[in-house]
Amino acid sequence: MKREPTNHNVILIGFMGSGKTTLGQELAPRLDFAFIDTDNLVVSQAGKPIPKIFADHGEEHFRDLESRALSSLIQESSKVIATGGGIVLRPENRALLRKIGFTVWLDASEDTIFDRVSRNTERPLLHTDNQRETIARLLTQRRPLYQESADLMVPTNDLDLGEIIHGIADSARVFFSQSGNAAT
Ligand code: S3P
Question: How many Cα atoms occupy the beta-carbon half-sphere of 120 within 13 Å?
C-alpha cells in the first residue's frame, strides 16, 4: 500500500486485552526504542486513574485527554507506543496514528479477550452486566477501525510472544527503510 512518510515509531493498536502493553514493553528494547503508553500519559495528565476519570467526568472527557495525549507525540521518534483500545474511535486520531508511526494491530479472538480481561476491574467500559456481549459489540464496531488504521495485523491468540516480537521488529525495520521520515 502507498504510504505517506511517517516518524520512526511503532504504534500498537487493538482491543483491550490484545497484549499491547506486555508486548510493547518487550518490543521496545529489541528496537532500541523507548516505551510509551498513552493510557499512562492520560493518567498523569488527569492526576487520577482511568476508572476515576470515567466516573468523575465521563467517557468523552477521557477521549479528549486521550486525543491530546496522542497529539503530544507528533514529534516523537524511536518510541514504541501502546495505545488505549478506543484510540481509533475518533477520525482525527486515526489520521494522527498514520503520521506518528508504523501502526501494528494486535488482534485476538473474542474468547481470548474475554479470558484476559474478565478478572481485571480497571476497564470501565467492561463494567457491564454482560461483559461478553459488551466485548462482542465493541469488537464488531472497532475491528474495521483497527483495520483502517493498521500497516500490519498480527494475531495474538496462539503465537508465542517471542515470535510476535521478532516478526514486528523485522517488519518495522523494513517499513522504516522503505518509508521517508516525516520528522526531519
Ligand atoms: C479503553 C481501553 C483502555 C483504556 C480505557 C478505554 C477502550 O486501554 O484506554 O479503559 O475504550 O477500549 P487498554 O486497551 O490498554 O485496556
Answer: 14
